[in-house]
Amino acid sequence: MISIRIYNQNRVLQTAQLPSSWVDISVKKRRQLLQIAVSLPYPYNFHNIILKLLNVKESTLRQIPPEQLQALYEKMHWMVNDPVEDPIFPSFRHGMTRYYYPKGKLWNATGLEYALADEYYTHFVEEGDEKSLLHLAATLIRPQDRKKKGAEREDDPRIALKSRAQVELAAKKFHKMPAETIHAAFLLFIGCKNWVYNTYGQFIFEESGTSKKDPFGWYGTFFTLSEMGAFGTVNEVQHENFHTICQFLMKRKMDEPKQKPKTS
Questions:
Q1: What DSSP string describes 161-204?
Q2: Same domain for 173 and 133?
Q3: Structural domain for 45, as ranges
Q4: How does DSSP classify residue 34?
Q5: Which of 5, 7, 175, 239 has its CA 20 to 30 A from that of 254?
Q6: Each residue of 47-92: pLDDT tens digit?
């Protein structure tokens, strides 16, 4: 939390606290605040959020000098900009269906799920293709598995992800999803992608010596693991837990004998 004092003509109007991350806000309030943040133009979005967070009247904010009010707005930019490693809210209902996000750090994601999400994310960032953003969201956000088979998949309440075709079919409905639900998936993937790189990067992403990056990306890695006999067929590798795959690759890298320096 950020402690603030609201002044007007050197008189303290109010002493209060503003959140500095989603951790400071109850889960029940998060979706409503994110909805305001992404649906209204700046600065009206943060103006309305501050009214709610401080529980003050509009007349109170009008007494604040413009430069101080602007400083308050700037303290709230994290809501729309800062990546997160845990879902901002775990689920939401749209129509008659409840949708779930993956666990924090994508702990219950499969190899295929991460590979598809990474592909769609990269295409959206590089090309600005809104369809790719919807595909990213449809990869991560999936309906509740009413047959409860998720217990077999790391206690995952979402229906299983089986193919790219499944994602792209589901994404056709996502243009009707509330903007805050899509933005929450976007921030979650950025945060988890950063975490994955910082945790496993030096072992499975960074090139060393004469090794070259697989031109087929994650799919090339899945084929390589299958050829090694790890986790089974290519299809079985893709549906293995993503972190299990990363940890296997990390251990394999750590177990490699260090290359001896060449002697002249």
A1: P--HHHHHHHGGGGGGS-HHHHHHHHHHHHHHHHHHHHHHHHHH
A2: yes
A3: 2-81
A4: H
A5: 239
A6: 999 999 888 888 878 877 888 889 889 999 999 999 999 999 999 9
